[in-house]
Amino acid sequence: MKITVPAIAKMKAEGRKITMVTAYDFPTAAIADAAGIDIILVGDSVGNVVLGYPSTIPVTMDETIHHTRAAARGRKNALLVADLPFLSYQVSLEEAIRNSGRCLKEAEAEAVKLEGGERVARTIEAISNADIPVMAHIGLTPQSVHALGGYRVQGRGDESRRRLLADAQAVEAAGAFSVVLEAIPGELAREITETIHIPTIGIGAGPHCSGQVLVFHDLVGLSERKVPSFVKKYADLYGAGVKAVQQFVSEVQSGKFPDEAHTYKSEK
Ligand code: KIV
Questions:
Q1: Which residues of the chain have pLDDT under 50?
Q2: Burial class (CB in 10 A: 0-12, 13-18, 19+), 246
Q3: Is residue 213 a contact partner of residue 21, using CB atoms and an 8 Å limit?
Q4: Architecture label for domain 5-236
Q5: What's the pTM value of the predicted model, to 2 decimals?
Q6: Looking at ligand 1, which atom is closest to the CA of residue 83?
Q7: Strand 39-42 relative to strand 18-22, pairing
Q8: Residue extents of the structural domains in the chain
Q9: Residue-level pLDDT at 232
């Protein structure tokens, strides 16, 4: 069944957990969709996870469109959300609407995600008023890594806690249909989830959110990169890949591959 934006809101109301995973291309989107995921996020983590950038900051709008289009071709039922890259929505409301619109018009996304709370409330409102559903993202916001001084847990201490609660309320009031809570204490995530009406989707935010998201490559163990402690690795595809290629190398070198079964005959 096709997952829509209203269906995601309904899941929170009905107490059904929402699942989201990143995908940046056709095969990973197809795997996620076949597994029955609710939301596929073409995250700007494409920058550090598959493009080899040191952070998400260098990711461009054109790269976002390119990867979202590829993921769209692999997805059937999941809601497809494109992550707006750094500086694609901060400069002006007009640019924010235009870049969000590109994700729908050119790449078949059904919603966009952007980082920030109260500070970006007007932007969320403007994009939503153009009938483009917006997923917000508060707590640890990787595009602010330099301002934050690193990838650190947020919402510890009364002031930070109050600010995050206010951020969650501001993005809801601005029209966001859901909000990602990244790297915050579980108790704060519970308080936010109980206070606002839109679904919260946690990453490193404990079990009390309306749903959970992980980066695909972390979940299936497809990279060697160091992952945060909240990541659960469900497979070791990197290890399996290295082993398979090692076997290929050895079989080619020894002449075992290709054998009869993997060689065309002159006649059928
Ligand atoms: O880009 C991304 O992968 C994300 C998720 C971690 C939520 O924003």
A1: none
A2: exposed
A3: yes
A4: Alpha-Beta Barrel (3.20)
A5: 0.97
A6: 1
A7: parallel
A8: 5-236
A9: 97
